[in-house]
Amino acid sequence: EMRLDPSGRPYYVDHNTKTTSWDRPTPLPPGWEMRLDEHGRPYYVDHNTRTTTWQKPSEDMMNHLQQYQIWRQNRPMNQLADRFLFPTTHPQTPCDDPLGPLPEGWEKRVDPNNRAYFIDHRTKTTQWEDPRTFEEDPLPEGWEIRYTNEGVRYFVDHNSKSTTFQDPRGPSALSKGPRGRFGVPLQYERSFRWKLSQFRILCQSNNPQGHVKINVTRENLFEDSFQQIMRLQPMDLRRRLFIVIKGEEGLDYGGIAREWFFQVSHDVLNPMYCLFQYANNNNYGLQINPASYINPDHLMYFKFIGRFIAMALYHGKFIDSGFTMPFYKRMLNKSLTINDIETVDPEFFNSLVWVRDNDIDECDIELYFVSDYEILGKIEEHELVPGGSKIKVTDANKKEYIEAMTKWLFSRGVVEQMKAFLDGFNEIVPLTWLQYFDERELELMLCGMQEIDVNDWELHSIYRHYNKSSRQVQWFWKFVRELDNEKRMRLLQFVTGTCRLPVGGFAELMGRNGPQQFCIEKVGKDSWLPRSHTCFNRLDLPPYKSYEQLVEKLNYAIEETEGFGQE
User: Fold this and answer.
1) Looking at residue 482, what is its pLDDT?
2) What EC number(s) is this enzyme filed under (predicted)?
3) Is 452 exposed, middle or buried (0-12, 13-18, 19+ CB in 10 A)?
4) Per-residue confidence at 107, pLDDT binned at 50, 70, 90?
């Protein structure tokens, strides 16, 4: 319907969608249809391609789509040189290369950033790895490597007619070849980066408009955060976060939220609350404490923690402590095996390996399908199978015993807690969004990098009213290099609000308006303390007159100050 506003300007009312527009409506393209979903929201069906979209198709959109489809048809996937690399017109010759000539059919080239890459003309593919130094074990019989349209490597098992992103050669396949920033081969790192970018696209495309304000006090951070998060609808927790800490000045452009995630995770995952416990004396990865049931509201707290961890993942923030690898595997709905026990209980793992590798019948040991465990100082007995206390372990049934023991070890007293955690998590981030990640990638997404590379930090830093040659800047980097890794993380937290780094290191630090490199700015007098602006990853460093003075002031600022500066 066309109507006129008070100024006499025509506008158009769409009674189907209950919206208005200044633009005169145009009919849908041939083969398109508008429908309403269960909530009354309009969406559009393209019967030509059997696809749907929330966006109303326009003439410009159809033209762009047609151009894109032509581009895709004329662009075979294996021409990865055009997708990831920028070939030079001057190929490098291997005559002076100390590694000798390349294998037959290979060519070395250099992109505009002077990075060498290699072309295999037989398969028409490219890679960063030098084929003279990179060797992999052969695939098992019946397996094949293929690539997605985005260039991500996956594996085809023709025996079972299935596919997977996991290398069937197992961890041993990672033991050879050049490694990337995270200790894995470079091609795996690039696959992870692609998967991470797809996850971030999912988050951004499902991000509701507006913001949500969370009011907390520093003295009661855990309980305040619990009350605030549990009273809000899950969809609200996807909105842009504004964290308000009572009694502290600060506008949250991201820095306060980073510290809030870090500090709250430190509290909620603290074993002193009896919700989580360390895996063992030598493994500080966290797992659910079976004794957590002593808190009558423990399931509500685990649902809260699930929401909170999902919020950190959704908003791209990091948490203080990480979980055990088996915990991440359970989040990903992956089966647990005897090998997972080694990470949480090495002694018990060795016992099960002994059972697996020896003839139990010849040893004549009294071992039954039961497990003794301690809970709150009391020894309990659990039957691994019905009537297990009367079923003796033999060489014939020991495989069943090991599988039952493994399942029991990781589910003992924590089934309801894990379900509550996953229910809360799934409300914010559907678990299907994580289906292409493995457990180590999930840990990396939540916890960031553990070791701080000072060279990488310095390389990706900028300066205001200082330069690289300024005495104070030279002293600062000398100070950082003399710190142990823990103190470096404290310094990083002082400046950015978190001691964790994005997966790309310092090059991918985020600020108020997107990527924001670490900055040192000359501010104030030598009697002043350093000051941080966590929203902008900036350190205000006064012009100290000696290295000793800089060390004293920085140490005091890192150890004694807490709060936020407002810019």
Assistant:
1) 93
2) 2.3.2.26
3) buried
4) confident
Yes or no: say if 298 and 292 are a contact pair by the CB < 8 Å rule: yes
List the structure tokens of 320.
């203080």
Kindly list the catalytic residues. Answer: 535
Q: What share of the chain is helix, strand, coil (3-state, %, to 5)?
A: 40, 20, 40
The residue type found at 172 is: S
pLDDT tens digits along 549-566: 999 999 888 876 554 443
Q: Does pLDDT of 459 surpass 90?
A: yes
Measured CA to CA in angstroms, residue 180 lies from 187, 190, 423 at distances of 8, 9, 35
Q: In the chain, what is the straight-line distance between the N-terminal and C-terminal CA atoms, in Å? A: 49
Structural class in CATH, domain 2-66: mainly beta
Question: Which sign, positive or negative, has the C-alpha torsion 304, 305, 311, 317?
Answer: positive
CATH architecture of 204-334+416-445: Alpha-Beta Complex (3.90)
Neighbours of 194 (CB within 10 A): 16
- Select the more confidently predicted residue: 84 or 515: 515
User: Where does the pLDDT of residue 499 fall: very low under 50, low under 70, confident under 90, or very high at 90 and above?
Assistant: low
Domain ranges of the chain: 2-66, 204-334+416-445, 338-412, 451-559
Residue 42, strand partner residues: 36
pLDDT digits (tens, 9 = 90+) for 356-369: 888 888 877 888 89
Cβ neighbours of 531 (radius 10 Å) = 18
User: DSSP character for 75?
Assistant: S
Nearby residues of 551 by Cβ (< 8 Å), 6 or more positions away:
475, 479
Predicted TM-score of the model (pTM): 0.56
* Non-local CB neighbours of 272 within 8 Å, separated by 6+ positions: none
Q: How confident is the model at residue 424 (pLDDT cuts 50, 70, 90)?
A: very high
Q: Distance of alpha carbon 398 from its chain centroid, rounded?
A: 38
The top-level CATH class assigned to 451-559 is alpha beta
The mean of the pLDDT values for the chain is 78
Residue with tokens 């139990």: 360
Please give the CATH superfamily to which domain 338-412 belongs.
Hect, E3 ligase catalytic domain (3.30.2160.10)
Q: How far apart are CA 125 and CA 547, in angstroms?
A: 53
